[in-house]
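so the lab meeting is tmrw and i was supposed to have these ready like two days ago... anyway. pasting both below. for each one the top line is the aa sequence and the line under it is the structure tokens. i havent really looked at them closely yet so no promises
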Amino acid sequence: MFVERADNTARLLDVKYHLLLPSSEKIGGSLDYFQWVAILRAVSAATAYHWVYRDRVKPWLIADLLILKSAMPRSLIFCYESIDRALGSLAREDGRSGAAQRQARAMLSALERASMNEIFQDGLHEFITAFIEDNARLAATISEQYLFV
């Protein structure tokens, strides 16, 4: 569930950031604003956004909420904390850990060390693309490790 949730959140952010704004519309314009609000509503985060930031809608704060805020249940870091916990429980039950636990821990560590300044400096689209690829690799590893596919 959390691997899929992380994938969906990342894709929503990427679609908005990369594709939705028509080239004739200015960034920060009314269409841009309403599209960002729609993203918040799509992940049930509009109220949470205003509680956390107490500010008007800003793309970098929305990205911060949906990537790095562990109190937000749809954020990437929340998903990876949950994945790490679940895989840890499986490893304790099974008596051994494997590649899935190592990959999840590495992704969680990368998210914990990340900052929005670095993410935007390196490119939000590039960050999300790499995240989606790593997330898909983790899903495949979990499948191989536990489902014998």
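ok protien two:
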Amino acid sequence: MQASKSTPLLLIAALIGSSTGCSRNSNGATPPQLLAVQVVKAQQKDVPIYHEWIGTLDGLVNADIKPEVSGYLVEQAYKEGTPVEKGHLLFQIDPRPFQAVLDQAEAQLAQAQGQLEQARAQLVQSEAQVAVAEANQGRTQLDVDRYTPLAQQQAITQQDLDNATQNNMAAKAQVQSARAQVETARAQVTASGAAVQSAKAAVETARINLGFTHLTAPIDGIPGIAQLQVGALVSPASGVITTVSTVDPIKAYFTVSEQEYLDFARRFPTGEQRRADFGQRELELILADGIPHPYKGKFDFADREVDVRTGAIRLAALFPNPGNSLRPGQYGKVRTAVRTENGAVLVPQRAVMELQGSHLLAVVDGDNKVDIRPVRMGETFGQDWIVDEGLKPGERVVAEGTQKVRQGMRVDPKPFQTR
């Protein structure tokens, strides 16, 4: 009974072993399947090298609107965010107190002018009195001159000569008095003239202060949100009420490193060469959504100094902005070609592997074997990367499947499919 039971078990074990052996033999006969990778040939061509920097947009001119006098805002005469022209009324401060001051100053000016005319008339009268006094003195002097020889000849009495002499002395005193009155009148004219000038200055000051109640746009531009509303009490200490900015063209500030600036300065050592390059070089503005601004820009100026904290220098560029689509405060990337790399060897950026600060490429040779090769990379160009050293034009590199390949592995190369 035991022998009969063990026979089927042995038979099953033999069948399983036979089946396993056949399976192993069949698997051993199948050739290994090659790893399929996508490869691309290294291209060689002249490419422009672009640099880009983070830029901040600002108005070409930003005019802060501040009150110059104290008073209550009675009107906001513009719509926020709507373009205005130079001279457009933005805010109105209550003008009545300033109009009253102007009226008072004009009245004081009229009074001062009247006093000046009166002083001038007095001067004319004093000068006329001088003329009368001088004429009288001339007559008395003639009497003295005539009586003196007659008295010596005793043709007249001494009393007559003494009387003539006294009259002449009195006439001279009258002349001196009249001349003093003239000087007094002239001083009064001068004082009245000074009062008139002071009154005119007061009128001009009052008129200027009245004008300050009209807060107008000093430039063509776009005014911002009002920081104070109608009814608010404003003064020179209130700060900025709004800002008007000229945004066409719009200014973009960006900073470049000191090394970049020095490299540029060495390539263009003179001011004329730098200005010529600035005039020819076009700048691109890549907006925050990644879409380029449709209009090219130009360099405007470089700051006078390098920031000691960052080691960078600030530059400014101007971009046309028709329609005022760009606004101050926006961010973007300012981009330009700094030079041309002649005969550059290019591979897709996705083909480059990084390992501990070094760069590697998986190169596929003519036998479809992989050579993991260290290379020295240069600048990027779009989706490609320039290989400065370690790769020849036309060599095939793995662009898809780099994480699966190993040194010396034979692969099944397929053309790289760009997505």
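from a quick look at the 2nd one: Residues 1-26 have pLDDT under 50 and may be disordered. The longest helix spans residues 96-152. will dig more after coffe
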